[in-house]
Amino acid sequence: MQALISVSDKTGIVELAQALHDLGIGLVSTGGTAKLLAEKGLPVKEVAEVTGFPEMLDGRVKTLHPKVHGGLLARRDVPEHMAALAAHGIDTIDLLVVNLYPFVATVAKPGCTLEDAIENIDIGGPAMVRSAAKNWKDVAVLTDAGQYATVLSELKTNGKLSDSTRFALAVAAFNAIS
Question: How many distinct structural domains can be found in the chain?
């Protein structure tokens, strides 16, 4: 199993990542999140290692890549999907943890400039959330730190997440980005 973690609000993320690691789940992450997890001694692979492509444009492009979205969107029950992943060296991503840039909080600040607002428009995060939620039967998507404990409890108890949990997470994810 593999988790991709890319969060703006890092509340509880180290504890979540540690628990996922303890369960044998591999960790992939972006920029500042990867740096934080590595500083805490967690084995984390930067998304650039997965894609073979560096973050660019001041971090505007990091997860918009077929090796990310292929890993999220591939249906595990469709042999052609799995064959395509294998042919292109793409690993599945089974758990996505994303919370978006704080756009609403940023634009609510007195003195917020247009540039500040523009830089807090998240592109890659919502794209990953949509990909994961679309493929909810195979991928769990967490968009809020309040979901971490419930998901960890179920993973520890059952070794996997139920369809009903993954579906509820997908509904919450679509609500978070709409």
Answer: 1
CATH number of the domain residue 94 falls in = 3.40.50.1380
Which residue in 154, 100, 93 sits closest to 127, CA to CA? 100
In this prediction, residues 157-161 reach a mean pLDDT of: 94
Sign of CA dihedral 76, 141, 15, 155: negative
| Alpha-carbon gap, residue 160 to 101, rounded angstroms | 29
77-130: pLDDT as tens digits: 999 999 999 999 999 999 999 988 666 776 788 887 888 777 766 777 889 999
- Structure confidence by residue, pLDDT tens digits, 27-76: 999 888 999 999 999 999 999 899 888 777 776 777 778 899 999 999 99
Strands 26-29 and 95-99 turn out to be unpaired
**CB of 95 closer than 8 Å to CB of 3:** yes
Please list the residues that pair with 142 across neighbouring strands.
97
d(CA 55, CA 48): 6
Q: How far apart are CA 128 and CA 54, in angstroms?
A: 18
Interatomic CA distance for residues 70 and 63, integer angstroms: 11
Range of the domain at 29: 2-177
